[in-house]
């Protein structure tokens, strides 16, 4: 893999990415240039990284996690179980310190304390909004067909604009303490 020669060196940049891009060779190449990385990862892109199986993490309960560190480059891989398993890879954030957070338990209909590694909090801080936008766009896809590729791009742009407008509206309503009057997405 070739990185562009225009990438800065030693500027302490941090890249946050989804599982489509995350692989160990990319993290190593970026780290060699002084660029840090954190992102979700697919298990198949982590060769020789034997993290615990999903079943064993589920048996331990919500908030359980497993850690592996590649010692040559100090790259950390964490598999964390909340409602489902998520695997994260980072060259600067690790699992320690663990934070206790409140999560909704559907079965008991109460909030429960769940442990969350720092790497998950770091990822959520910067990528949580992107993942939320992706999930909303998946809900509101237009069921249309076209032979012209640019029609899909046009409607996707419209959907993104509408969802972003609603998220801004919701944020402003909360800032003005108008929570009872917030319109739903439809």
Describe the structure.
The protein is α+β, with helices and mostly antiparallel strands and 186 residues long. Helices cover 35% and strands 23% of the residues. It contains 4 helices and 7 strands, in the order E-H-E-H-E-E-E-E-E-H-H. The chain has helices at residues 24-32, 54-60, 118-139, 149-175; strands spanning 14-17, 36-40, 65-70, 75-81, 85-90, 99-105, 110-116. The strands form 2 sheets. A 5-stranded mixed β-sheet has the order 1-2-5-4-3, with helices on both faces. A two-stranded antiparallel ribbon has the order 6-7. Helix 1 (24-32) links the parallel strand 1 (14-17) and strand 2 (36-40). The longest helix has 27 residues, at 149-175. It is globular and about 50 Å long. The model has no long low-confidence stretch (mean pLDDT 84).
Keywords:
186 residues; alpha+beta; five-stranded mixed beta sheet; two-stranded antiparallel sheet; 4 helices; 7 strands; globular; transmembrane helix; transmembrane; PGBD
Helix content: 25-40%
- The secondary-structure class comes to alpha+beta
The biggest beta sheet, please? Answer: 5 strands, mixed
Helix-strand topology string: EHEHEEEEEHH
Radius of gyration: 20 Å
Number of strands: 7
Sheet-strand content, in percent, reads: 15-25%
The strand line-up of the biggest sheet is 1-2-5-4-3
Write down the overall mean pLDDT. 84
Total helices: the number is: 4
The outline comes out as globular
> Could you name the ranges where pLDDT drops below 50 across 5 or more consecutive residues?
none
Distance between the termini: 44 Å
